[in-house]
Amino acid sequence: AQSVAQPEDQVNVAEGNPLTVKCTYSVSGNPYLFWYVQYPNRGLQFLLKYITGDNLVKGSYGFEAEFNKSQTSFHLKKPSALVSDSALYFCAVRPPSGGSYIPTFGRGTSLIVHP
Amino acid sequence: EPEVTQTPSHQVTQMGQEVILRCVPISNHLYFYWYRQILGQKVEFLVSFYNNEISEKSEIFDDQFSVERPDGSNFTLKIRSTKLEDSAMYFCASKGDRVGEKLFFGSGTQLSVL
């Protein structure tokens, strides 16, 4: 069965500093990996995905994520955080074939960017 | 960008009552999902729906739950006899048919069972 771990409930960072939100996964085969963001009173919004190709993928709002197969990780990064980046971030994984196509989500990491 | 719409945004009900949560997926999407998130916990998969039938469901989705797409536009989740532990945020999502395509989520219905 596939699973996702987001080891940090909360990440605090000062505006202008780089941020990292961690995600590790477990899945059979090569994974499809996603990051979603949830702003208050809104649904989850897609940020970026990795399916194949370059391990560094770029997404919305200046975010990027690096796929590391040996560490089974897909950490979300941004070089310079903004206060408006404060939100709940969810990592998700699904196998590419042969079983459930349903994305499995982590518990979410609350990112707080301080002015 | 197109949106998935969920109503109501908040629902308060008494234990044992039936509730229906409503969703309008994006019009040309083919796959529909319900997820829920209990406060402080993971976003949990409940059920997926494709071609007018359930394609997959989780252990959470027991006989008290049902889904329906009654008119080609709405997608509903019914809980027949609510329990306290059903209190959660329920998210509807939809997806087109391309491989690896992202899910589009609604803003959720906060269900409180008293």
**Helicity level of chain B, as a percent range?**
under 10%
Stretches of chain A where pLDDT falls below 50 for ≥5 residues?
none
If you average the pLDDT of chain B, what whole number results?
92
Which descriptor suits the 3D outline of chain A? globular
Order of helices and strands of chain B: EEEEEEEEEEE
Figure out the total of helices of chain A: 0
Strand content of chain A: over 45%
Describe the structure.
The complex is a heterodimer of chains A (115) and B (114). Chain A has strands at residues 3-5, 10-14, 19-21, 24-26, 32-38, 44-50, 56-58, 64-68, 73-78, 87-94, 104-105, 109-114. Chain A is mostly beta strands and 115 residues long. In chain A, the strands form three sheets. In chain A, strands 2, 5, 6, 10, 11 and 12 form a six-stranded mixed beta sheet that branches. In chain B, strands 2, 4, 5, 6, 9, 10 and 11 form a seven-stranded mixed beta sheet that branches. In chain B, strand 5 (43-50) and strand 6 form a beta hairpin. The mean pLDDT of chain B is 92. Chains A and B meet through strand 5, strand 6 and strand 11 of A and strand 4, strand 5 and strand 10 of B.
How would the blueprint of this fold be written?
The complex is a heterodimer of chains A (115) and B (114).
Chain A: E1 3-5, E2 10-14, E3 19-21, E4 24-26, E5 32-38, E6 44-50, E7 56-58, E8 64-68, E9 73-78, E10 87-94, E11 104-105, E12 109-114
Chain B: E1 5-7, E2 10-13, E3 19-24, E4 31-37, E5 43-50, E6 53-57, E7 65-68, E8 75-79, E9 88-95, E10 104-105, E11 109-113
Parallel strand pairs in B: 2-11
Antiparallel strand pairs in B: 1-3, 3-8, 4-5, 4-9, 5-6, 7-8, 9-10, 9-11
